[in-house]
Amino acid sequence: MAKGKRPEITLPKLDDLFSSQESREEETLSKIRDIPLEMIDDFPNHPFKVKDDEDMMHLVESVIEHGILVPAILRMKEDGRYELIAGHRRKRACQLAGLETLRSEVVDLDRDEATIYMVDSNLQRTTILPSEKAFSYKMRLEAMKRQGKRSDLTSTPLVSKFRTDEKIGKDVGESREQIRRYIRLTELIAPILEMVDDGKIALRPAVEISYLPEELQYELFGSMEQEDCTPSHAQTVRMRKLLDEGKLTAESIYAILSEEKPNQKEKLVLREDRIVNLIPPSIPMAKREDYIIKALTYYAKYRERNREDEKESR
Question: What is the mean pLDDT of residues 199-204?
Answer without folding.
Answer: 93
